[in-house]
């Protein structure tokens, strides 16, 4: 077994220590109990939560893990696994870049678990790999205007201020459940770019559920939209479709896989060349996406291969 330890995730968007993880003061008791019960503890894991703005939280958790390793070894456990957890950012615009986190982690590992110490280092990189790989396209299924409850305030034309409420075919009980779990406010990209002269209106986006909680985003300023218009949301690969429920019998969303034309043409040429001569030396094997074949291209892909839900 692996002992999961608690940490300070108070600054993270997603708090996991509230439910998972034991404080350091209780680790020795658990390790002793495991030994008496003939349960072999082989390592330590932790998870500082998603969206942590402080990379030093990883360093502190690694230092805590070192103490638990020493407790376990002293009690006769063969400790050799360290799991660094997940929550690593998968977008370029994150407050803390992945490279910064990796630098802090590597420095802490060099200090507490140096190379050659016999410990296998693991990490859970799901969010890092898939966040930017998917883009979601949703359509507007209903629209209404609501008066803002702001006494004494009027618009330029003398009428009371209004906000446009748009209902989408997906909500927080489906693809946008990250609004609940990660406290994010998804920002849509319009299907058609508005002109500079086009006025913007106070707007909010809601899911299809008939309750007051299914709010995807509010406080937005958008041009006049209509039923049937499409909105696009980038960086929607992590904890979206896989975490959603089939609310009200809603069908699972359709997935379309896409890659740049440059990458597709290069891949197609490689496939044809391989089919003609399987023994030809120097020909790369067919690969799965555009970025993987950039090393064999004269020019890089136009954009990162992505998937549209």
Automatic annotation (TrEMBL):
<dbReference type="InterPro" id="IPR022644">
    <property type="entry name" value="De-COase2_N"/>
</dbReference>
<dbReference type="InterPro" id="IPR002433">
    <property type="entry name" value="Orn_de-COase"/>
</dbReference>
<dbReference type="InterPro" id="IPR022657">
    <property type="entry name" value="De-COase2_CS"/>
</dbReference>
<dbReference type="InterPro" id="IPR029066">
    <property type="entry name" value="PLP-binding_barrel"/>
</dbReference>
<dbReference type="InterPro" id="IPR009006">
    <property type="entry name" value="Ala_racemase/Decarboxylase_C"/>
</dbReference>
<protein>
    <submittedName>
        <fullName>Antizyme inhibitor 2</fullName>
    </submittedName>
</protein>
<dbReference type="InterPro" id="IPR000183">
    <property type="entry name" value="Orn/DAP/Arg_de-COase"/>
</dbReference>
<feature type="domain" description="Orn/DAP/Arg decarboxylase 2 N-terminal">
    <location>
        <begin position="2"/>
        <end position="130"/>
    </location>
</feature>
<dbReference type="Pfam" id="PF02784">
    <property type="entry name" value="Orn_Arg_deC_N"/>
</dbReference>
């Amino acid at each position: 077994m692996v002992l999961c330890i608690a940490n300070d995730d108070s600054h993270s968007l997603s708090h996991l220590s509230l439910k998972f993880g034991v404080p350091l003061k209780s680790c020795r008791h658990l390790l002793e109990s495991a030994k008496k019960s003939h349960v072999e503890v082989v390592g330590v894991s932790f998870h500082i939560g998603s969206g942590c703005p402080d990379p030093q939280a990883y360093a502190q958790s690694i230092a805590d893990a070192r103490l638990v390793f020493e407790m376990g070894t002293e009690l006769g456990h063969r400790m050799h696994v360290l799991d660094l957890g997940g929550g690593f950012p998968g977008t370029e615009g994150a407050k803390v870049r992945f490279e910064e986190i990796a630098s802090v982690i590597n420095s802490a590992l060099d200090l507490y678990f140096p190379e050659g110490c016999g410990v296998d280092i693991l990490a859970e990189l799901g969010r890092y790999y898939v966040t930017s790989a998917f883009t979601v396209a949703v359509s507007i299924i209903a629209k209404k205007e609501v008066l803002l409850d702001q006494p004494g305030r009027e618009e330029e034309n003398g009428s009371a201020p209004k906000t446009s409420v748009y209902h989408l075919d997906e909500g927080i009980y489906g693809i946008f459940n990250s609004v609940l779990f990660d406290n994010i406010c998804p920002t849509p990209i319009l299907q058609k770019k508005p002109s500079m002269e086009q006025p913007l209106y106070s707007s909010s986006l809601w899911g299809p559920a008939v309750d007051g909680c299914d709010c995807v985003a509010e406080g937005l300023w958008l041009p006049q939209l209509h039923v049937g218009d499409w909105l696009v949301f980038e960086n929607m690969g992590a904890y979206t479709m896989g975490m959603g429920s089939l609310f009200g019998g809603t069908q699972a969303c359709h997935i379309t896989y896409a890659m740049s034309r440059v990458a597709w043409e290069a891949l197609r040429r490689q496939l044809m060349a391989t089919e003609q001569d399987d023994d030809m030396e120097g020909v790369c094997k067919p690969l799965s996406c555009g970025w993987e074949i950039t090393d064999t291209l004269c020019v890089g892909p136009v954009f990162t291969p992505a998937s549209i839900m």
